[in-house]
Write a structure and sequence with these properties.
The chain is mostly helical. The chain has one domain. The chain is built from 15 helices and 4 strands. It starts with a helix and ends with a helix. The relative contact order is 0.13.
């Protein structure tokens, strides 16, 4: 590996991780502020203008709180749980393409940390690992409420992973590849001359199943049974505090970002430019007489902004849903997963197989 390849790889890793972790304080602020708007409350308004600095004050609080470990816990696995929880979604983010490519000198830099032909399988592997920190944390805490939360979480995630996998399979039949870059390129086509060939227009049922499953996979309301503060106090991370709890807290938001980015890539064109932004880009290029290289680099910036806006939209919807819908009962969660989504996802795979066969 030459020095340029190493530098551009490290730069992409730092950029993706910095953006993912850097937006978490603002997401926390928006979630608190958004819940206040929805429920007719004030929300954070003391630390900084409009309470904007409150999340950073919370980070400082986590750093200075006592690092306490329960006497009855299994120490090794107790400390491994939160690290594992954050590492899995961060690793999955390395496969998400956030643009086409940049041109630096005579070098081309693909805007994806790890360009793997079987990228979808890589993401599914790390997404499937998210159940392990829940089990590890619940068992290692040696607390009955933590164990109940771990059992709920493991059964919920495994149940909805099947429907999510079938929804993904229905789109793999359409795209004919496991490469996320090629999936985004496929969606650059046009239907009827104006409608983008996004996966959501081709397979709306698969998109809906996948979207619902992301709520269950990330333990967001109305699927937050593993935590269930009104029933099992705080669930699998009840015995965690200070930075160990902060890692679980960060892991939830990183998992939301990863799930939203994957949803945008599979069903909403990925980094494909939003409608109307292509005209803005062409106007800027023509007015300033930009070279082909400069135009491509500017296009890559627009592509990243487009993906960022799509992911932001799904994150806002997740926050809105949390403060709008009540928590499901556990039997309702299992009923929805096994008796509604699973048969629907299975039927959708059969239907998309017929559609793809007729299209071919």
């Amino acid at each position: 590996m030459d020095i340029f390849t190493l530098v551009q790889l490290l730069a992409k890793i730092v950029f993706v991780f910095a953006v993912s972790l850097g937006v978490i304080p603002f997401l926390v602020w928006f979630e608190r502020r958004g819940s206040a708007w929805i429920q007719g409350r004030v929300g954070p308004n003391r630390v900084g203008p409009f309470g904007l600095i409150q999340p950073f004050a919370d980070v400082a609080k986590f750093f200075f709180k006592e690092f306490w470990t329960p006497e009855h816990a299994n120490k090794w696995y107790y400390h491994l749980g939160p690290i594992f929880a954050l590492a899995a979604p961060l690793a999955a983010l390395t496969i998400i393409p956030f643009g086409s490519f940049l041109v630096i000198g005579d070098q081309i830099v693909n805007l994806q940390i790890a360009h793997i032909d079987s990228g979808v399988l890589f993401i599914l592997a790390f997404a499937g690992l998210e159940v392990y920190p829940i089990i590890i944390a619940g068992w290692a805490s040696n607390n009955k409420y933590s164990i109940l939360g771990a059992l709920r979480g493991s059964s919920q995630i495994i149940s909805y992973e099947i429907s999510m996998g079938l929804a993904l399979l229905s789109m793999l039949l359409v795209y004919g590849t496991f490469d996320l870059h090629l999936m985004v390129d496929w969606q650059k086509q046009k239907f009827f001359g104006f409608l983008p060939a996004w996966g959501v227009f081709i397979n709306p049922i698969g998109a809906l199943i996948f979207w619902i499953s992301t709520f269950a996979e990330t333990n967001r309301l109305p699927f937050d049974l593993p935590e269930g503060d009104a029933e099992i106090v705080a669930g699998y991370h009840l015995e965690y505090g200070a930075m160990k709890f902060a890692l679980f807290f960060m892991a939830e938001y990183v998992a939301m970002i990863m799930a939203s980015a994957l949803l945008a890539t599979l069903f909403f064109g990925g980094y494909h430019l939003l409608p109307g932004t292509g005209r803005i880009l062409n106007t800027i290029v023509s007015m300033n007489g930009l070279s082909e290289v400069a135009a491509q680099n500017l296009k890559a910036l627009f592509q990243f902004v487009s993906l960022f806006l799509k992911v932001s939209f799904f994150m806002v919807v997740m926050i809105w849903v949390r403060w709008t819908f009540p928590r499901f009962r556990f039997d309702q969660v299992m009923h929805l997963g096994w008796k509604i989504l699973f048969p629907l996802a299975l039927a959708n795979v059969v239907w998309m197989s017929v559609v793809v066969y007729l299209m071919n």
